[in-house]
Amino acid sequence: MAQRPHRKRPDDLRGLLIAMAVAALAAGILLALVFASAATREQSQTTVISGICLVALIGAFWFAIDQIRTWRQDLQRMRGALLLAKNAAVSFASQVDGTIESNDLSQLASTLDHVLHKRQAQLSLAEERLTSVLAALPAAMLVVTDRGLVSLVNAAAKKILPTSAIAPGTSVYAALRRDSLGSAVRNAMSQQHAVTTAVKTTDDRELQATIALMHTSGGFVAMFEGVNASPYEEKVEHDLSLHDVLPQAEPANPDTPLDDLPLLVFDCESTGLDPAQDRIVSIGAVLAHGGRVFVHENRDTLVKPDVPIPARSTTIHGIDDAMVADAGNIAGELAWLADTAAGRVVLGHNIGFDLALLEAEAKRRGVPWKSPLSLDTGQLIAALEPGMEQLDLDHVAGRYGVDIVGRHTALGDALVAADLFGKLIPLLQDRGITTLDEAWAFSRKASGLRARQARAGWHAVGEGG
Questions:
Q1: Cβ atoms < 10 Å from Cβ of 126
Q2: Does one domain contain both 306 and 435?
Q3: Same domain? 419 vs 359
Q4: Which of 190, 188, 115, 175 is nearest to 142 (CA)?
Q5: What pTM, to 2 d.p., does this model score?
Q6: Higher confidence at residue 229 or residue 355?
Q7: Is 187 contained in some domain?
């Protein structure tokens, strides 16, 4: 979201120094006049000068206090922009330029942005060179996670494997037979070193592959013989974060630090906006741990609502009656959610609406349901930035530099909310808010938003029950 540009105040420090000098001069003259008047006992001659000095003294102090107050506000905004700069989609200087008034601080931000940009350029160059090395290897190469997801593939592997759709995040078993590949991996595990063996593709071809385990990251590397990429096909696609393993965590409690918070980030699409009457048509969820999002630990399902989906709702989320005709009902999803949410905090943007939908669906089906611990990114942002008028997901994602992919799909919105919370954690910590209980207390500062949500029939966000 573009920020409204502020009028810059030039030479803040010079103005503050001048104000303090004027105050000191006025105070000195006033003091001298007081002593002179006491000595001569002639007050009438000094009354006008004393009044002028007093007005100048008060004005200088008022100006200095106003300068310090606005500087403090600008420093707070600048600190927030710096905390967001690590993964922001826009530059640090751009964020600062749209939020602070001080020209001096804007110039400082430009210098910091230059340093950050150079550092990022160095990291990008190192990654680019490493990718070039991998692309130049004279073999078809595939990296696979413990869960069987492709995390890296080069052009030669795409040529030799039977599916052109193989890419980071897809299942390796779309290209290689599960039994054959599993046997090769078990052989490598038993021998504790790389092994060369035959593996079968899903179109019944046999390939010679060298399988090497990745002991520290989990998963394995497969190098195939027989096909090399041409010089014009040197390309590597990768998402090595797919090797991240969800940490083992204690069940969430009020004292759990935000950095260590086990999360189920959740969103659903529905037939409408009345949580008491409307039905769920799609559920999306992803697991996270504090600010780390494990995109491969996700759920994306359609739900049969047993009522027609209004055309106005289909216009928003793209789901119609034909798409949910063979989908499962909500009872199975409620069971999955109850099991997955145990020990975790359910997080979402305006999550109170989704929780109210779930509670109504459970009551309608006669399914036992206990509201989980929950946290609303919308309430946190409203408390962090009381002046922000537009709190919908599109605007706050733009404000905090979160990329939007798959907007108005349940999983897409859940992923945006998860990334958004990762941006909020350092800003909350900067305010001294480090635990779940402190985040709940801070959310209560968004009293206006919470009141509107309550009037709309949304579930109260917090400790569950």
A1: 10
A2: yes
A3: yes
A4: 175
A5: 0.66
A6: 355
A7: yes
Residue 6, pLDDT > 50, answer: no
Amino acid present at 245? V
Q: Same domain, yes or no, for 231 and 267?
A: no
Cα 28 to Cα 48, 232, 458, distances in angstroms: 16, 80, 63
Asked if 353 contacts 421 with a C-beta cutoff of 8 angstroms, the reply is: no
For residue 277, the 8-state DSSP code is T
Q: How far is Cα 170 from Cα 144, in angstroms, rounded to an integer?
A: 10
- Domain's final residue, options 216, 243, 270: 243
Q: What is the Cα 236 distance to its own chain's centre?
A: 27
Residue-wise pLDDT for 135-149, tens only, equals: 777 778 899 998 888
Lowest mean pLDDT among 222-231, 366-375, 384-393, 410-419: 222-231
Tell whether 128 is covered by a domain: no
Indicate whether 234 belongs to any domain: yes
Q: What is the largest CA-CA distance in the chain?
A: 114
CB 382 within 8 A of CB 424: no
3-state secondary structure of 209: strand
Q: What is the mean pLDDT of residues 439-444?
A: 96
Number of domains in the chain: 3
DSSP code for 232: G
Please state, in angstroms and rounded to a whole number, the distance separating the CA atoms of residues 85 and 343.
32
Encode pLDDT of 315-374 as tens digits: 888 899 998 998 999 999 999 999 999 999 999 999 999 999 999 999 999 988 999 999
DSSP type of residue 216:
T
Residue with the larger pLDDT of the pair 264 and 106: 264
